Amino acid sequence: MFVLTNAWRAVTRSWVISALTVVVALLVSFGTIASLAILQEQSDAHGTDYNAQTPNAVLRPTAKTAAAMKADDAKSTASKYLKFTDYNPYAIAAQEKSVSFTYTFTETLPVRQGDTFKAIPGSADESADKTGGEFQLRSFYDAKAAKANDYGTYRIVDGKGLVFTDTKATGALISKSVAEKNGLKVGDTFKVGDPTDTKKTYEFKVRGIYEYTGDVTSTNGTTSDASTAKLAKENRENVIYTAYATAYTFGLDPDSPKADSWSVPDLNVIFDFTDVDTYNQFVRLATKAKLPDGYEITSPSLAAYEKSIEPLDALAAKVRPATWALAIGGIVLLLVLTAARTWFGRTDEIGMAFVSGVSKGRLGWQFMVETFMITVVPIAIGLLAGGFGVKSIGAALAGGHATPVTSTIVWTLVWDSLGVTIVLAIIAMLRVATFNYAKLFAPVAYDDATYATEVKA
């Protein structure tokens, strides 16, 4: 009790230095655990988490090819669309090397608006005879194709999703914006016109109404909204989604479409892989088999993942140098504050304690307890606050990316903090251990003026 009481009195007597020590210990522990959690998550994002992805692969026009594909010129565009036969060499090459994959696909072609079913206009629309129509009709082979939609992920806000296996189904999904423009609700029907045969129409039933939850991920000229869409069909709000079985039954996947016309469907085959290594093997095989002129192989899912961790990378780039500065600067500052609290201005206090019969061991322990009082508790609070608070930091500064604290980080910092605290306590104790008893009996030097004043007194 004697040691604790005297230690507390000493701490409160030097309250400015003690308060600074508490603040520094809190900031260093909080900042270090939060920073390490962010850096560890960034490392995992490019390592174990990246390798755990289940990527897909598609053949897409290069930027140069896409720029030459005009939305109002079928000859410059539809002539570059790929067919199933263009994909066969890559599937065969993968099978020969036992590279496992699954696949799905989408087909897209323009369709014309009708008298009672209008698209959201573009900023510079042209005749449907040149563009093929104001809407885009995209058919999904299955749910996986819908999930990999390069126009952006979407959710159903009213109604139900598509049925992919029923050839008699006529259901389609329209955007909330198009539904509101045309006063349509789930269960209503609408007609669209063929892209090349102006006498032919197709009637669909509104099965669901959707809105987008993700961004456009391809270079197909499609934009997010009317403000940036030159043509109506370039606005993704004007995309009608249906099942491939429905489109095929309607004859919208013709066996021999007129060449270089908008009746040629834009086929997009999507290969799916169980891991990144298998995807990389497929890329090497596909490249070796020679890609179609003007096309490249990409992975929209990996691209989306890499985009999702960009805020985390940016945050980690700022945190990395700050972590070293915080840790090193904080420890140095704690050393200085400990020295200032114990090595300066306490000679009389130490001497008086010795004269009163206090042993060096007991006094040294008091100095160590003082150090523990103003470091152990603040460090513990800082680690706890940082451990729980870094999730909010990740959500706010890393684009919502999770930044959990791992057990490895926790235990590493617990032992490091314990080591730093013990070092600081030893430095404080050495002040007592190295005290020179001779100072207790050192003669007091007086000048003449001071001597005369004391004699008079």
TrEMBL record:
GO terms for molecular function: transmembrane transporter activity. The keyword Transmembrane helix applies. This is ABC3 transporter permease C-terminal domain-containing protein. Its main location: membrane. The keyword rRNA-binding does not apply. It comes from the Bacteria. It is found in: Cell membrane. One of its GO terms (cellular component) is plasma membrane. It is a multi-pass membrane protein. Keywords: Cell membrane, Membrane, Transmembrane, Transmembrane helix. InterPro entries: ABC3_permease_C, Macrolide_Exporter_MacB. The chain crosses the membrane at residues 15-39, 324-344, 365-388, 408-430. Residues 326-430 form the ABC3 transporter permease C-terminal domain. It holds the Pfam family FtsX.
